[in-house]
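Quick one - first record:
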Amino acid sequence: MGFKVGIVGLPNVGKSTLFNALTRTAAAQAANFPFCTIEPNVGEVAVPDARLDKLAEIAKSKQVIPTRMTFVDIAGLVKGASKGEGLGNQFLANIRETDAIAHVLRCFEDGDVTHVEGRVDPVEDAETIETELMLADLESIEKRLQNIVRKVRGGDKEAIQQERLMQQAKALLEEGKPARLLEVANEDLKAWKMLQLLTAKPVLYVCNVAEDEAATGNAQSARVAEMAEAQGAAHVVISAKIEEEIAQLDPEEAGMFLQELGLEEAGLDRMIRAGYELLQLETYFTAGPKEARAWTIPKGTHAPQAAGVIHGDFERGFIRAETIAYDDYVSHGGEQAAKDAGKMRVEGKSYVVKDGDVLHFLFNA
């Protein structure tokens, strides 16, 4: 399981440049005019994880298969999108299908790149997008409440639950607050997700800065960081231009280039790590002579459900999981040596998989 992040923002903030760089493709046209991205472009990237390469080396795996992250480059938003302005309706439909939203915010000055509002203010840009999403959610809720009136009167339990959740979300939205701030009880989580509210999605603010500010950020990105902290959102500082240049280099050249700029890692790595934390995801591994592979699961996943990510039969016929912690696997030089050292554990259905676990599942077909 990977995850899907919608890259959104006002026109000309660097969305398509970032998308092209991150996915190493020119599928999205990056041009200096609004709406150059008409259809949502989808690109998948491998999630870099040095642990997977190490496991493959030890297990002498023929194939190395990382988990994947999907980016969706969505058309630029303008004020009035919730009422169909610009490409509003299309934008809102595309964003519903994502797991999280990456707001690309312009934090750079460049007289050659026009800002749709004629000024550079990332916090105001973020508020513009958030407002449009809140207005769209309110409209959606009001329509749905009208549609389930009869079912609620008839005592339909599902409809009553939906109405309660929608009324709670509506109250928040009318206060100018996003739906993600609502505390949802465990028994309501499934119904809540089915509402597909735009402002219920986790948010990652991506501060697009000039090349010489990529390592330190600037005053504008500092304002975004403050806003993100207040909202309980995540943020990351990136230079889309640097990412575009890195995309053209081989790994060794890219490493040297980053070093010259005072950067420890590429923006892609920072975005993925921030996305994992935002969505509370983690990775477990399978390793053997045939392949070493990374699998993404939500934190707190039990062993049978983790097995189900590989194949539904693994979950249905789950018997037990043989588990070795990553550090033990590496320090002992592989599966058999870790077993001999007593570092392999046999876990049952109640086991909560931990980040970095190297797993082997036993199941009934």
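second record:
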Amino acid sequence: MAVAMLTSCGRGLSGAGGEVTGVRSVAVNEPAPYGMVLIKRGSFEMGPSDKDSLWGMIPDTKGVSFDAFWMDQTEITNAKYRQFLFWVRDSIIRERLADPQYGGNDLFKITEDRYGEPVEPYLDWSRPIPWRRASEDELLAIESVNYINPITGEKKLDDKQMLFKYEVYDYTAAALRKHRLNPAERVRNTDIKVDPNEVVMISKDTAYVDEDGRVISETITRPLSSEWDFLNTYIINVYPDETCWVNDFNNAYNEPYTRMYFSHPGYDDYPVVGISWEQAKAFCVWRTNLFKQSLNMAQGQSIEPFRLPTEGEWEYAARAGKNENKYPWATDDLQNNKGCFLGNFKPGDGNYTEDGHLIPARVGSFSPNEFGLFDMAGNVAEWTSTSFSESGPAQMSDMNPELSYNAAKEDPYAMKKKVVRGGSWKDVAQFIRSDMRTFEYQNETRSYIGFRCARTQIGFSRSKGKK
């Protein structure tokens, strides 16, 4: 008896011949992320490339492999981070233009606030809005995000208001078998009797603004009840710490950098600093949302997010996948044959300027490595996603190695260390090696630490990239 092959719409499958032919998925046609280089999948020996008795480095390496991923060619600059900051600023203003407390009126009524919550009534966008001078009420909303120093009269953004709220669904925690909502699915050993009344405790991060305007962040532990237990909420102040220049260097005249480094257009293409690990993660979430909006995706579709690179990805990218490379360049020398330095670091005792720079250099000032990445040694050290452990790679898998620990607010401060890689403009040559690892606390901000983003490539791509 012949059996007809039908699709879900009732149409026959021509040429199926009674065989499984597969159902193809439909994906969003994503462009190559702007300013990123494709690092193709590969493997290498992670860890110190040789023994160094002076610095106590032991060549305890581990063979690891990585899937393909995208990585920013340069560190995130002041100009790029300022785009994020101004998005937060404009979102606050946009809300207040519809708020009666700030003189909200019909012209500026909006559909949703900066957190995606609906706001009614909404503006009829089909009606053209002519340019005109802002009213006093509108100026009140616009100026409300600024701060005027009562002594100097200087006006700038009020850093205390620059709060970015975001939510992250923890796919890893939700995937663990011990967290299954159905108790019968938690154990596959049929010799074990499952307790249907077992209480599974789950921890999640949450944040809110109290009646006094203070941000309250906490980690709560409660019985597992639904998928909502895997949704974490964060409210992060995203304004860079401009005071890091003074706090990092005692008895030094760094006031001009405190006042100008982030805000002056002359530093637009310099790497942003004074950014904590928490702020860098918030930037990645915002960048993901911005990219997703540009694709005009349908409801329910998702994309691979931008994120901080793992420690392993960072080292693999810096060393161009080569086991013998100490530095991003293919030599142990610090200068080329013309005597020019190959990176921005501290060449001598008290001598920061021999490489041509005193503080961070404009990104891309030195030649890229074989993967096409700039400033992977010196300039500014860079945050990774990885939690710091003395044993490092030994604790990690040999496939896409990562060590992740989402420290609760109540955890000891020592548990909030994150791996920092690459060394910086203030470091001597030993500390800008690609195989050198160090750490910083996740809420700390430094004048010598910045970041760049990464993004996993999904499936096979014909995109051109660096091997």
